[in-house]
Amino acid sequence: MLMYSRFRDKNVKVMRIIFTIILIGTIILWSLTSFAMNYRLHAYAEEMRQEIDLMPPQIGSVNIVPSDEKLNFSYLVSDAEHGGSQIIVTDVLLFRTRVKEGEIITPCYSIVIQDPISGLKYGINIPLENVDGVEGTADDNGLVNVLQADDVGKKLFRPERPYVEGTITGYFDFQGSVIYTDCRYYMIIIALDYYGNAYWEIYDVTEHVHMLAGKQMFERRIIGGPKIWTHNIDGKVERGGIISHYYTLDGNAYIPWIKIGGGELQKCFVLNIVTGGSIVKIRELKVEIRSQAIAGGVFILRCYELWKYGTLTISVDGTEYWRIIFGYTIGLYGLFALLIFIQVMMFVLLKGKSRR
To answer: Quick one: pLDDT at residue 16?
Structure first.
């Protein structure tokens, strides 16, 4: 009986050692597989970047002139040196801070686009909360849509489609509309290309609008420092897939998905930037937000291709301020597969033990 007990204890120890070896071997195998996949992706990085446009369009030569109850504007939108794809959407929006109770404020402006490649619809969300980047100001909770609330008219003249580069002109018509001189006005310019890369800039046009009313600006704008944030979801593990994509920004990890309402998620990469009166650049994407804009943003629909860059470098007035690091980890399906494999191996080992 004593010999059987010793044999049993020895058998259990052997089984534990075998199980540990299998577990360690599985982890090593998974790590080597992940490394091999990562290496293969980077090996084809340059080739794939040439096939898929990841660069948002450029917005430049912005000119804003108030005249005869109209806020006239013009700007250049171009994808010529940013991937060379067509511009499919460009628009100009006008918002202001709330001046009285009961006015409807919008924390986020959303547009829905039908992707010309897949035929599926996707949304782009432009945050309107705290657009100036300074806490405790009137825009902290969002802005009022001037075209809806104040019945301001708008005309926008675009080139004939299709076009890769073109000059956009237009105006906001304040004739017969009230102009509030105790609030701030913000103009947003957005451009979107064929592959789902969007870029927008936000301008403080308070002084220009107040000129239409023959008034001076009621207070000077408070300028804070540059800021960057995202509304991608926190974490490292995506809901599906064997390999999970994530990136780190300011020490925090995010997966390239956003919530779009109704519990649904949308895959995309989003950055929101407050300039703080500086020039902000994203080197790899050729994005440059000029100091005249108070804020800007980047949206990339086919975002998995970004991981081939490895990093994105974001500079302020020529000095590197932030670095986004793209990474991979085991995905949710991979975790499930690993757990199932471990359970199967434990069952096989225990089955073998019971037969003995």
So the answer is: 64
